[in-house]
Automatic annotation (TrEMBL):
Protein name: Non-hem dioxygenase N-terminal domain
Keywords: Cytoplasm, Dioxygenase, Iron, Metal-binding, Nucleus, Oxidoreductase
Residue span, Fe2OG dioxygenase domain: 197-304
UniProt GO molecular function: dioxygenase activity; metal ion binding
InterPro entries: DIOX_N, IPNS-like_FE2OG_OXY, Oxoglu/Fe-dep_dioxygenase_dom, Plant_2OG-oxidoreductases
Species per Swiss-Prot/TrEMBL record: Arabidopsis suecica
One GO CC term on file: cytoplasm
Record's subcellular location: Cytoplasm; Nucleus
Domain of life, per lineage: Eukaryota
Main function: Involved in the regulation of shoot development and salicylic acid (SA) homeostasis.
Organism taxonomic ancestry: Eukaryota, Viridiplantae, Streptophyta, Embryophyta, Tracheophyta
Amino acid sequence: MEKGEDSSTFKMGNSAQERSLPYVPDCYVVPPSSKPCDSNSGIVPTIDVSRLKGGDDERRGVIQELSLACQHLGFFQIVNHGINQNILDDALEVANSFFELPAKEKKKFMSNDVYAPVRYSTSLKDGLDKIQFWRIFLKHYAHPLHRWIHLWPENPPGYREKMGKFCEEVRKLSIELMGAITESLGLGRDYLSSRMDENGMQVMTVNCYPPCPDPETALGLPPHSDYSCITLLLQNLDGLKIFDPMAHGGSGRWVGVPQVTGVLKVHIGDHVEVLSNGLYKSIVHKVTLNEEKTRISLASLHSLGMDDKMSVPRELVNDENPVRYKESSFNDFLDFLVKNDISQGDRFIDTLRIKD
Ligand code: OGA
Ligand code: NI
């Protein structure tokens, strides 16, 4: 590392990944994972969600698959989700074009205020965390669309229209999936639908991981779980790794989730872990880097309203199953984010667990 190079040298607008530095500065170097990484992605369930609209038996079958995936891994892929391939391609394309804009244009959105509804930044908590990550991102609220879209980038032309269309489609899908999830827990399909529909939050995280000169030493994102109920993710290249805690006799391993055109990934987030009183687990995941290509991912995080607290449903509590989590909202997560360092392994869900 050059003299004086620490995290504060690589603040947003001046980060190594935005400048395409030909080397990885020390403050980006992560300790190697102690867990093996297997390329075998055969364990990742793929669910045909068009069958949710089928007859009762068909729907029950899908819900059973979904329930198993949520219990074992907290992660699945979906096919036949009904979103047109053009909408997915267009969203990835405008995302990529946004990151190719001149710095001056992107800097209009630069902010490390985690409460801002639209912001451009780098790493995780830019320049503040101990370790930096090789990521550039634009985050914006997306629901209700008419409330936020005028704050989104006007450039590249078509960004608002194409990203907006993608956000709307993904949100409809998220409501449908949440209905299946609450049904699988015996709470009924509409248990959360009005709360998610009316005030629910949708945070679209548009991630860009530029080529990294030494992809083994740095990460795009450190191991973390999402605060959301569910996150729907679209990627243009491999790079997502999920943690399978049951593998190797319970010591766990990382599994690469390959890019397949048209497939969307679904992460169970901390708020569904709470909703299920721990039956479903939020998935720990991270992002690895590529030496040649720029990776783009669109992560759409769906949760209840800003101050609407997710709590363990009374229906799931009895003598054998006491309440295992404290209630919390999206805003509580943001407060947690300000005070903690995810790169050091701090997890929101750990702060919610009620000790026996
Ligand atoms: C995230 C995330 C994964 C990816 O934005 O929370 O985990 O593949 N992204 O970019
Ligand atoms: Ni994530």
